[in-house]
Amino acid sequence: MLFMIYTTGCDFLTVLRMYGIGVGVPQHERTGMLDANAETEIRMGVSREQGTQSIQGHPSDEDCVAEFVGATKRFGAILAADRINLRIRRGEFLSFLGPSGCGKTTALRMLAGFEAPSDGMVRIDGQDVSRVPAYARPVNMVFQHYALFPHMTVAQNIGYGLRQVRPKLAKSEIAARVEAALAKVRLDAFGARRTWELSGGQQQRVALARAIINEPKLLLLDEPMAALDAKLRGEMQRELLDLQRSLGITFVLVTHDQEEALSMSDRICIMGAGRIVQVGTPQDLYDRPRNRYVADFVGKANILNGEVLSRQAGLARIALAEGTEVLVPEAEADTRRHVDIAVRPEALRLAVPGEDAMLRARITHRTFLGDHTEYLLQADGIGALQVNVPRQAERAMGGQGVGDEVHILWTAGTGLVLAAEE
Amino acid sequence: MRAYAIAVFVFLYLPIGIIALFSFSAGRSASSMQGFSTEWYGRALSNPFVMEALWTSIKVAFLSAVLATVAGTMAALALTGMRGRLRVFFDTLVQVAVMIPGIVIGIATLIALVTVFDLINPWLETVMGRRLSLGMGSLIGLHGMFTMSLVVLLVRGRLESFDRAQIEASGDLGAGPVATFVQVTLPQIAPAILAGFLLAFTFSFDDFIMAFFVAGSETTLPIYIFSSIRRGVTPEINAIGTMVMVASLTMLIIAQVLLRPGAVRAGR
């Protein structure tokens, strides 16, 4: 295993060669970033390890089922959505992820037709639908608290969308399609029940069946799992994915739950303060968060501040503290002297006896979690750091506990220089 | 404590019970029981003045209740979509309207109407050859306006427990605003609307004070009863009173049944 803690004065390129790092790593292979607010140049990073180019990248015109073009929404003085540019690919599972008030729900409601953009537009299948009311859009939604009609049976709820179709559909056709939808969400025997007699999970399946019966081009899901308990949530997530695969409908999910977004989505759109911060595959966002906001929101990250000593071939040599330097990839061309670095707790290692490492730290907390152990450390000159050690690797360590000294291994190329936050 | 409660109820309902009892008296006295008969009911129902007053009352009650129900429901729907100070202002107005004594409303309305009629009647006479005066129109208008606040309060109560996301869900599923109202909103607030109608009808049917001021030459049943009492109370009056009471109570009980929690499940 390579490590890259080295003292000042050591030649940068020599060190690179020493550790066998090829000089001149192509820049584009590491740029997993998207400038959400630049309308023209939307570049998505293509990560080598996934090879799922079809899901990434910029959807072509016919591949694009819906699109935000500079969509802006103001509520009085509040800017709920700020120049959103995003193309949604036909058949993908896209999530809007962010804390409450970040604009994700506003974005979803602009797709549904409950909010008209104050500026810019929303397109569905190439058509500008900004002024088209919800009832005339080929889009259906699963509401946060399901919004089932309490005065109708389960079957009547599910058939509601079909009963609105003009010219009217035959009663027999509606009945047959309701039966099919009931079967699809495994509620065959529940058609005659009242919605309030059902459990939360069953109610959600009714809401789902009601939303897919008109075969929408987009199925919108507004925090659909929020009201379910943890166990049921996992079950519903798998069911939702199966359903999406069998229907081939584009799903757009709004959630504040990063695990939900990471586990279900083809792509995630991270939002903050009404803007898109970063769009990418879950792996993209985890491995190459654009800035501190994303690094903090997706997974856990140590955020460190350092001074750039030199830059070469997409790698920055950064002094974290006196005598402690690391080599960190830089996603975007940059000239800043002081930068933030994100490094995942599992990307760092604790040295085993005999290994040489420069970064000394003291253990302040140790949390055993079965498959791995979380170490909270106080590193010399740097501050608090979290390192996750897999159970297997921990066995090789010296059995240090709280208060003991450990050494941290920072492998060359670990971590990422974060872009400045706008 | 229990005896006290019983005493209160006896005090409240005994006089009413006695009137109902005396209405079956066979004698001519309205304040004593002399044998049993339904004679006075027959007399009341065959008295042309009673029947005319009853018909007037029914017309006024029905039309004012329709007016109050339509306007009150629309006002309740509009108020539910409203936020902030304006809503507090309207809410307060509606609640105050219910609490103002009828005699104040009666006098105030009388003065207002007479003033307005004096202002526009000369103009109306020259243009259309007609003039406005107190009567059926002012009765219906006043009762409709006043009972509208009752309907607003009842329908508002029902709308409070109504999940507004349902309206968006309906729109999302392809129903326009009118279709949404007919299929989603109306079925769920219908019991409150119907209860509001019955209460408005009952209120108008029973009202004497307000009607007295604006009735003009019209005679409603309560006004007829009031003027008959001045000529002495007969068992016939007792019979009329009992019939009015039974009709009113029936409608109030139906309204209560409609308004009981869970008449239509509004929960999730």
Would you write up a description of this structure?
The complex is a heterodimer of chains A (422) and B (268). By secondary structure, chain A is of the alpha+beta class. Chain A has two domains: 12-27 and 300-418, OB fold (Dihydrolipoamide Acetyltransferase, E2P), CATH 2.40.50; 54-292, Rossmann fold (3-Layer(aba) Sandwich), CATH 3.40.50.300. Chain A contains ten helices and 20 strands. Chain A is elongated, with a radius of gyration of 25 Å. In chain A, the strands form four sheets. A six-stranded mixed β-sheet of chain A has the order 6-7-8-3-9-10, sandwiched between helices. Chain A has a five-stranded antiparallel β-sheet with strand order 13-12-11-14-20. The model of chain A is unreliable at 1-56 (pLDDT under 50). Chain B is mainly α. Chain B has a single domain, classed as MetI-like fold. Chain B is built from eleven helices and no strands. Chain B has helices at 2-22, 39-46, 48-80, 85-99, 102-128, 136-160, 165-172, 177-206, 209-214, 221-229, 235-259. In chain B, helix 4 (85-99) crosses helix 6. Chain B is globular, with a radius of gyration of 22 Å. The two termini of chain B are 41 Å apart. The model of chain B has no long low-confidence stretch (mean pLDDT 89). Classes of the chains: A alpha+beta (422), B mainly alpha (268). Chains A and B meet through strand 6 and helix 5 of A and helix 7 and helix 8 of B.
